[in-house]
Amino acid sequence: MTQTVLLPNPILREPARRVPTRVGRRYFIRTFGCQMNEHDSERIAGLFEMDGMTPAGGFESADVVYINTCTIRENADNRMYGNLGQLKAVKDLNPAMMLVVGGCAAQKDRDMVRERAPWVDVVMGTHNLDRVLDLMDHAENWGPITEVVDELQAMPSSLPVKRELEHSAWVTIQVGCNNTCTFCIVPSVRGVEVSRRPGDIVREVERLAADGVVEVTLLGQNVDTYGRDLALNGKRRPIFAELLRRVGEVDGIRRVRFTSPHPNDFREDVAHAMADTDEVCEHLHFPLQSGSDRILRAMHRGYNRKKYTERLAMAREIIPGLAVSTDIIVGFPGETDGDFAITLEMVEEARFDSAFMFIFSPRPGTSAANLTEQFVPEETIKERFARLSEMQNRISGERNAEMVGRKVEVLSEGPSRKDTQVATTRTRTGKVVHVAGTHRAGSFLTVEVGTAHPHHLVGSPV
Ligand code: SF4
After folding, report:
1. Tell me: domain 407-461, CATH 3.90.1150.10, correct?
2. Does residue 346 line the site of ligand 1, with CB under 6 A?
3. pTM value?
């Protein structure tokens, strides 16, 4: 029998300590979606390893499979249900395999996941990661269970972790979002903004540094408003700039990154903290979404073209050598040729180093999904998308070409996936540089950039 449990506990709890009960079993995690999900998956892996499990190479050899779902894009949803379909066949051959579905789609569409994939053992949400082992115990003993709660139960960073890269770590500083972007499902699946105490964050970064981590990425949906829900010295105000400075002071941390800021909330104090703190990398992800004021209003973004342009200019003036990346949505409902032309104009002017470009995809549960009468025809969207990609690829190539001949510090991420004789490394500005030879993940080296391509550079050690 499937049991649904709703817990009303609003108090953030510590993960329960337990004796490992699954020693020798193997787990496999498939993650869809954004960095927040990737980070959650690292925490799930940490909990699995705390329980004695080790990683498996794929679904077939796993005793436990965890699917971390996403609802941001329709494509991710479709792939998730496709994966669950495949897993039914695997489970038919091996009924003892435990299948757990978590993440945003499970949080939002808990009943739909159960309905479309009744063979799933555990359906859980984004707010109760710390419960995964208990829920698996329940499923093993009493059958399938759904537990989705509406309030955050444990900050992901309070849970054990198995990091993808040993030298680099995500650090959650905030979960949830108080904005109402009309295309976005995050506020309804991740809830309102909750900031973690700064002292707690700094202590975690200190522990990470002691563990050999040299790079941290501070993670929140809208980092510029970090701290405004905390009463510190009797005041409630954003304190992200102060947090950046404090994290930068931690011994052993050589690179501090963060994602994502919001153009509406990005202020000079943060730009100054970036410029003054050597450890904070000169890279800003500054999501534009559209260049048209009319579309930005319909998206509820809270800024217009002028404000965005002024804030970008301010950031570039204060932070020397700043690289800027962005997000752009093509074909938001009601986008006309004129609106799109303004976006192209903005992209040409802004000269972003890189851009994540998305085709609008209506997400059930968002207000933009109801604007069906204004949906832009698919052919038109495809044609606009191709024009935008071509323009941005050209600009990215030009920006990267400016690096040729320069000597830059890079941090190795280990052998490249395509060629083990080449290391994938990254500059402080977030650009990928392929460097011949073996360079241990986590090692810093200086390289001279030889050639430039739109999505990567090639360099040689100096
Ligand atoms: S700022 Fe907008 S796009 Fe970003 S998480 Fe919040 S609602 Fe979503």
Report:
1. no
2. no
3. 0.83
Q: Output the residue whose Cα is nearest ligand 1's atom 4.
A: 221
- Ligand 1 atom at minimal distance to the Cα of residue 301: 2
Which pLDDT score is estimated for 74?
A: 59
Check pLDDT > 70 for residue 221. yes
Ligand 1 contact, 302 CB (< 6 A): no
Q: For residue range 27-76, what is the model confidence (pLDDT) as tens digits?
A: 999 998 888 888 889 999 999 999 999 999 988 899 999 999 887 665 66
Measured in whole angstroms, how far is the alpha carbon of residue 352 from the centre of its chain? Answer: 20
The verdict on the CB of residue 174 being under 6 Å from ligand 1 is no
The backbone torsions φ and ψ at residue 130, rounded to the nearest 5 degrees and listed phi first, read -60, -15
List the residue whose alpha carbon is closest to atom 2 of ligand 1: 181
β-pairing, 432-436 vs 422-427, is: antiparallel
pLDDT over 80 (residue 425): yes
Q: What pLDDT, on a 0 to 100 scale, did the predictor assign at position 458?
A: 98
Q: Residue 402 CB: number of other CB atoms within 10 A?
A: 11
pLDDT for position 117 = 87
Q: What is the mean pLDDT of residues 141-154?
A: 83
Q: What is the CATH number of domain 3-147?
A: 3.40.50.12160
As a CATH number, domain 288-402 is 3.30.750.200
Report the share of the chain in percent with pLDDT over 70: 94
pLDDT of residue 103: 87
221 lines ligand 1 (CB under 6 A): yes
Residue of 129 and 236 predicted with greater confidence: 129
Pocket test for ligand 1, best of 35, 36, 108, 221 (most atoms within 8 A of CB): 221
> What CATH number should be reported for the domain whose range is 165-281?
3.30.750.210
Same fold for the pair 3-147 and 165-281? no
- Structure-token pair, residue 64: 């436990």
Provide the residue ranges of all domains of the chain, joining segments of one domain with +: 3-147, 165-281, 288-402, 407-461
